Amino acid sequence: MNSRERVLQAFNFVQPDRVPVDFGGHRSSGIMAIAYVKLRDYLGLPKRPVRVYDIPQQLAVLDEDILDRFNVDTIEMGRGFSLKESDWRPWVLPDGTDCFLPRWIEPVRENGNWVIYHPDGKTPVGLMKPGMIYFEQTCWPMADKPEEKLDRVPEMWTYNMWAALASPPGPVSYDELAAGAKRLRERTSRAILGLFGGNFFEGGQMTFRMDNFYMLLASDPALAHRFLDKMLEMHLKSLEPWLKAVAPYIDIVLFGDDLGMQTGPQISPRMYREFFKPRHKALWGRAKELAPHLKIMLHSCGSLTPLMPDLIDAGMDTANPVQITSKDMEPERLKAAFGRQHVFWGGGCDTQQVLRAGAPAEIRDHVWHNLDIWAPGGGYVFQQVHNIMADIPPQNIVAMFDAVAEWNAAHA
After folding, report:
1. CB atoms near residue 49 (< 10 Å)
2. pLDDT digits (tens, 9 = 90+) for 85-129
3. Would you call 395 exposed, middle or buried from its count of C-beta atoms within 10 A (0-12, 13-18, 19+)?
4. What's the rounded mean pLDDT across residues 206-219?
5. C-alpha span between 171 and 240 (Å, rounded)
6. Helix (H, G, I), strand (E, B), or coil: what is residue 30?
7. Which residues contact 244 (CB under 8 A, 6 or more apart)?
8. Total count of domains within the chain
9. How many Cβ atoms sit within 10 Å of the Cβ of residue 226?
10. Is residue 148 part of a domain?
11. pLDDT tens digits, residue range 165-175?
């Protein structure tokens, strides 16, 4: 069984020959570049220039030797692009390590800060101050006079940091998009994830600012619906040509909408059903109409349990990163309630406490405990809970992935 078959068998709720492993198959299963350099050194692997493909989170492109070392079954479609040295420009990480960024992104040094501008060259969209290891968003284009901008939502969308700082494939034509996805399919047997986005709740937060969007939903639902209709129209318009280009070459399409917090969902189930479920259902349903073979993945941090029935009904096949330390997100609870309706992608190792501060033996026990719950009967892909942060010791990363390999060997 190859990696792609293994992942797809998990979606059929059949336990594969081994638990599939995701590392870097999408943005929220990756590793910060600072930690990646240390990991390669710890493993004694050849020194290679680190390429940072996600600038706000400073995530590293994973090399084949790392994917092989940890038996990784997934790969992001973006790895089929920016393959030449000329596609990258030199930069330096916050800890002073040399690295490379996609050539179309050019941070500017101003008053000791790193600033990233919108392609208009005038509007700052991201800022990293000394001592920070991320870029923070600085522009919320719908925050003032939103009614006057409703007919310009696609333009306004480009001014939020996440849209302005595209990761590979980056600014390519649809023909180039199809060619790159096809090349990747031909050279890998790993399951390929295509990142579409299609945010609605986050889309409002990214353009209005979080506090403003919360107040909009509560105080002016009519305007919120008009804005969200514009977002749906924009996403549907982008989805069809995007899928036409890449659908034959990918296995999973990833949408994003952070709906959860540590303590529960950010909004009530009632508010989700009113504002977001119909749009999710329309967008995800259209993806299924255009490419029935694709699995629908949602990225959402935090506690989702009260929203899970509605998300599944809207068309979600799987969600990451399964933040098991959030309220009501215990593996036992989730597997019992949704284990025959939903594929859990994540929740394999807590990154907030266990992976950061645990000893390797503690990490092994933690991973084995979680796999004992998640793996039986399929419907599971291993991933740590969100990205591996810059301060995670490399020996702990190795302990986590080796624990998965040992569990698989013990249950073969």
Report:
1. 12
2. 999 999 999 999 999 999 999 999 999 999 999 989 999 999 999
3. middle
4. 97
5. 17
6. coil
7. 174, 178, 290
8. 1
9. 14
10. yes
11. 889 999 999 99
The answer to whether residue 176 is domain-embedded is yes
Q: Is 130 helix (H, G, I), strand (E, B) or coil?
A: coil
Task: Show the tokens assigned to 214.
Answer: 């919360």
Q: For residue 234, how far is the Cα from the chain centroid?
A: 21
Q: Please tell me whether the overall predicted TM-score, pTM, comes out greater than 0.85 for this model.
A: yes
What string of H, E and C letters represents the secondary structure of 279-322? Answer: HHHHHHHHHHHHCCCCEEEEECCCCCHHHHHHHHHHCCCEEECC
The tokens for 261 are: 């917090």
Beta bridge partners of 75: 192
- C-alpha distances in Å from residue 99, one per residue of 47, 85, 95, 126, 129: 12, 12, 11, 19, 18
82 conformational bin, left if phi > 0, alpha if psi -120 to 50, beta if neither: left
Q: Which domain holds residue 384?
A: 3-31+65-78+139-410
In a domain, 172, yes or no: yes
For residue 368 the two structure tokens come to 């084995």
What are phi and psi for residue 340, nearest 5 degrees?
A: -105, 0
Backbone dihedral region for residue 112 (phi beyond 0: left; psi -120 to 50: alpha; all else: beta) = left
pLDDT tens across 40-58, in order? 999 999 999 999 999 999 9
CATH of the domain at 252: 3.20.20.210
Within a domain: residue 51?
A: no
- Are 276 and 201 in contact by the 8 Å Cβ rule? The answer is yes
Element (H, E) at 113: strand 113-117
